Amino acid sequence: MVLRNLPFCPHRALELPLIDLSFEDREISLSQGELRVFDYSSLLEFNLLVCRLGLRTGTTEKMLEELARRARKLQGDWLGLEDFAQFLNLPVTDTLTQIHGLFDQHGDGQIDIRHYIIALSTVHRPSDSMETLKLAFKMYESKESGEVEEVNLAAILEIMLGVKEIELSGLFLSLDGPDTGKITYDELYRFIKQHPYFVQEYLIFKNHPRNFCIGRRESRDVQNDKED
């Protein structure tokens, strides 16, 4: 079992009633689709900061594709704050520092720029998650096979869903053929389309809604045993 820390860890979560959210925030919190956002608090924090910098209004599909192309060239290199600012062609400000800090997974001042781009794509089109997934695959996939490794897919889905510690053994064991720990976008796309409850049935993550259902069912079973 591979349990990992969420690479997208805001220092605080926003707890605002839906009526107080902006139009863009409501889009995120009410997202639909196969990979809808499960816990939107961290993405709302991120969206607030990118809006403050004016990055949200300037985001387009073409711009996301260009960012992804440049990120792929970095081949997973980690960026400090100065390099992050240079990548975005922005000055270092308090807000940019906060955004950088959201993705500082190890607390060493370095981030994977791909995580930022996945989050930006998610808040830009929260109900079009398959396009964000396709974009993420372009940054991570092997040039030879088009495959993404399990650990990288977990990182992608954690950011897109806003959850922690995704474990993918259920998915990979359910795929046709041997479990190689790798998957292409087309394979994952077909699997998700064939399984409308993909997230609920094939993913495991911290605070998964299924865990609460199991807990309630076990509580009822214990109560029934006592009554018997």
Overall description:
It comes from Mola mola. InterPro entries: EF-hand-dom_pair. Keywords: Metal-binding, Repeat. This is Lysophosphatidylcholine acyltransferase 1. GO terms for molecular function: metal ion binding. It is a single chain. The protein is mainly α and 228 residues long. It has one domain (36-215). The protein is 55% helix and 4% strand. It contains twelve helices and four strands, in the order H-H-H-E-H-H-E-H-H-E-H-H-E-H-H-H. The strands form two sheets. Strands 1-2 form a two-stranded antiparallel sheet. The longest helix has 19 residues, at 209-227. The radius of gyration is 19 Å and the shape is globular.
In short:
One of its GO terms (molecular function) is metal ion binding. By secondary structure, this protein is mostly helical. Helices cover 55% and strands 4% of the residues.
How does the SSE layout of this entry go?
Layout: H1 23-29, H2 41-52, H3 61-74, E1 78-79, H4 81-88, H5 94-102, E2 111-112, H6 113-124, H7 129-140, E3 147-149, H8 150-161, H9 169-174, E4 182-184, H10 185-194, H11 198-202, H12 209-227
